[in-house]
Amino acid sequence: MALQQKKTLSKTSKVRPFPGSTTSSPQAQSLPSEIELRYKIAECYTILKLDKDAIAVLEGIPTRQRTPKINMMLANLYKKAGQERSAVTSYKEVIRQCPLALDAIIGLLSLSVKGAEVASMAMDVIQSIPNLDWLSVWIKAYAFIHSGDNMRAINTICSLEKKSLLRDNVDLLISLADLYFRAGDTKNSILKFEQAQMLDPYVIKGMDVYGYLLAREGHLEDVEVLGGRLFNISDQHAEPWVISGCHSFYSKRYSRALYLGAKAIQLNSSSVQALLLKGAALRNMVRVQEAIIHFREAMRLAPCRLDCYEGKRLIDCYLASNSIREAMGMANNVYKTLGANAQTLTILATVCLEDPMTQEKAKTLLDKALAQRPDYIKAVVKKGELLSREQKYEEGIALLRNALANQSDCVLHRMLGDFLVAVNDYQEAMDQYSIALSLDPNDQKSLEGMQKMEKEESPTEATADEDVDDMEGSGEEGDLEGSDSEAAQWADQEQWFGMQ
């Protein structure tokens, strides 16, 4: 009996070997190892958004048996979960095994590991392989990016781009375009994005920022074409959804923009642009507290991106909810983190303008910002607002004329029109409003300024127009009904995607 049990056990052990044991059977050799199975299970968990389960499965693999791709997945999951120390350890292990793993190098730099330390880990390989001297400069450039030093990063990447080995490199061009965007240089940013697209028509990375810039500049037809083209490439990336959302947002269809932003976040919860889109839509729908949640998450993911704070973003939400103390704390934090550049100075000045006690401080900050960058439009606009409050119209006109000497901007032309009206120069004011509307036909304030001047010039005609408007009121009601039905339609979509 005992002999028979021993034979049965022997047969069973041949059919089902212990994990990790070797066998000469061809069928067994074709099966994946236990480690590979664990990796594939973790992949499935990440697709299902079950990151904790994915981490648990990968942590079950002994440290010495973890391959570079396992460590890389672990590092990314740790980073996403906010476990920065564990993420750094895993990224370093990837680089120890694969010194040229560029994604792991970027991962370390994004976690505030010093560029010199990261470069030292790859130095032996850089020195032993010919034509690899560019890598140390590349690491230096991305160290500047992740420390928020945009201008030095731009200069370093531009020097890399001049090298023959990296000329017309799409990844570098996308990074350069993003840096110009962060530095507030919209023109060069769009130019570099277009260059990258020409080299690789199927590129998706960074196109959400490109679509946002085009929409912000009023090129909505181009945004629609770009979104459609990217949907044809893949609808499983966040970028095409963000682009379509930007088109809806700048068409003032905020409910639809909210839905599209939520869909993008479902596909990629780390998409900063998707979070900003959804937050902006919520902000314009007067759902300020919900908007703050999304802007704070975007800020956590990209603390060096000023667009997470400025404009109608986080600080604006605090100001809209009369939380001036929180807004001031956030502005000071940005200023201390990223240093005294034109953008941070303007952000801090924007908050100071909200408090009558800090008007002089705001003026000093704006003067410093304009001394650094006389062409920085946001600083010019805020300085113009301050001069308007103080009724220093001649000084405001001089400021705006100087700013418009080398660039044309709708807001600046409109503000100049307002200042000219204040000094009774109506003819040139009308010209400035016309230029503003030619740059942005949907600029309501320029249209109102022009209509106000026309009424003052011909009061009789203005009265007749008002009578006609009263008679045609029913048409306007129809338009409003249409917008309400559309809002209800997209509100249903929001419920479907769990946004209520």
UniProtKB/TrEMBL annotation:
The UniProt regions of compositional bias labelled Polar residues, in chain numbering, are 1-12, 20-29
Compositionally biased intervals (Acidic residues) = 463-484
User: Could you tell me which residues the TPR repeats occupy?
Assistant: 170-203, 410-443
Q: Which keywords fit this entry according to its UniProt record?
A: TPR repeat
- Per the record, the domain of life is Eukaryota
User: Which segments show compositional bias classed as Basic and acidic residues?
Assistant: 448-458
Query: Could you identify this protein by its name?
Result: APC7 protein
Q: What species was this sequence derived from?
A: Polyodon spathula (North American paddlefish)
Lineage of origin: Eukaryota, Metazoa, Chordata, Craniata, Vertebrata
Q: Gene for this protein? A: Anapc7_1
